[in-house]
Amino acid sequence: MRLMISVIFAAGLFGCAVAAQAATTPQQVASFLQSPLLAPASVAAVHQRCATSLQLDDSLRAALEARTGPASMAQDFQAYDELSNVLMMGGLELDLVDSTNPDQAIRDAARACASKLAEKVAGVSLSRPIYDRLAAIPSTGLEPSVAYALEKILRNYRLAGVDKDAATRAKVAALKQQITDAGLAFQRNLAEDKSEVTLASVDDLAGMPQDYIDAHKPAADGLIHIRTVALDANPLIEFADKESVRKQMYLRFANRAWPANEATLKTLLARRAELAHLLGYPSFAALDMADKMVGTPQHVKAFLDSIAAAAIDGSKRDNATLLAEQQRLIPGESTLQAWNVSYLTNIVKKRDYGFDEAQVRQYFTYAKTRDGVFALMHDLFGADIRPWKGAHFWSSDVEGYELYDHGKLVGRFFLDMHPRAGKFQHAKTAAVRMGLANGQIPLAGLVCNLPATGPMDHAGVKTFLHEFGHLLHVLYSGHQQYVSQSMMTLQWDFIEAPSQLLEEWIWNADTLRRFATNAKGEPIPAALVAKMNAARHFGEASYWRRQLGLANVSLGFHEQPAGFDLEPMWLKLYDPYGPVPTPDGAHVYAAFGALEDYGAFYYTYVWSKAIALDLFTRFKAAGMRNPQVAMAYRKAVLDPGGSESAEDLIEHFLGRPMSTAAFRQMLQK
Question: How many other β-carbons are positioned within 10 Å of the β-carbon of residue 274?
């Protein structure tokens, strides 16, 4: 569950010389930005769009590099921002096609173009002429948010290595291209993984909900084939009565894209380490943190340790309960096994809290959840969501909508919510085009894998709201003067806070009763929601210990010298934080997609959770459906995008700096 980061950010926007280009007209730029590549019908269409994108990039860059005379915001900064706008949308639209298009040849073409575009981005980020023009812009008298944008851009240029000599810049550009290509290969191996679990008979599905059994009938060979995608794998691990079935799926799921990604990840990490050293940083982690809220790897490590200290007692207490239950079911098993945790957690919640996860599923379907989320957004933020008429997408099950505010179009979005062959297998928000005050309408969407029909887990509702939090951030912030002030330029370790904040509403009885109904139309009982909340915190400390483990892997993998063995390093970094040991034979790093796009800063999820719960304290005090507080949040946190620092956004809403107290208190419940 994450906001999609395009190749633009992987390559480091904001090298090599560019040959003279024919001048680009404003009409050509406007035409490109007004018609994003959403549903190319052929490989040729991708190639044509790619050629147009690359030509625009070269032309705009050449014109900016050729500028002489006094530098100004109106000319130089505006030209840079236009180039950034074209580069950003070019990368984002290719990511979308690669993640969603049903045709593998089209996906491959998009990926190939993304690699070419990354080379252009690296060149812009290392262009000394562009940097010199921007650095020469007088800063006196600039409006604070504009001065802040300029300051960030100049800092990012220095982080990219623009101040190095020409030979070093050429090496940096080559390394960034290798990093991009390795990252694309890593994600391709994961997206195209076709591993599955085969079960001998329906008896192996004992304990599964009936709708799951109905959806997984024996094939012509008499076996039941279950894919290792989250929609199929997670319920099997959670509900299957047979431990052998849970174990088989857990290990197969943990080994997606392995061994294919073993060498690919080593290459990615090695090139990143080489880049950091070339730029004068002790590690890629240090380079990756330089523009984040935390600032340094040392600060991250201290934060992880402080949260681990808050979580350890609750996690140990819950694990002792789970182990006792495991030993009752499997005598002689003295170690709590990872593939048993979800299954045992359901047993304990049912026994000790009277809460049955399977009972909740009957109240949620995709369609009802979608409508409920739309209604909640209207009540909180005044969101007026209407069908996007005339929109054409890449699959018939993709839905298009428009967001209005008091009759004014705020942005457009799509929902690609159901599994499909070749599609991105997790859940993310796909930004395509940033919005601007000049009338450029923001465009984004959700790419998820929720069931199209039938019951849906409560976790699916959480996924929907989480991603919708990202979506609102993209759309509501789409009115800045410059794309360099968009939410894509906000410190990235804040970026999961708006999405994790919205997750809190899935526990609110007043919210759920409005859309969570069973087949008879009966709303979810308040008593059931009360039981759900009573059971909520069992296992939560362990969940966050797992996130801490993953964060430490993300950090530690990027602090090591190149060439280390991945499996033993994973065990060294993950297991001291994780709630249960990594099982033998599990190569989780091969399928840990965030290692590619989040790099060293997967800690973002834990850091942003602390921010989200801190922001939520105002809602708890005033009422979760209080529209005045919700609007204050929107205006203070969402609307500004990246025009101010994350620290300032938090303080504007809370009236004080960020605190981790609410998060630590939750972990100790």
Answer: 17
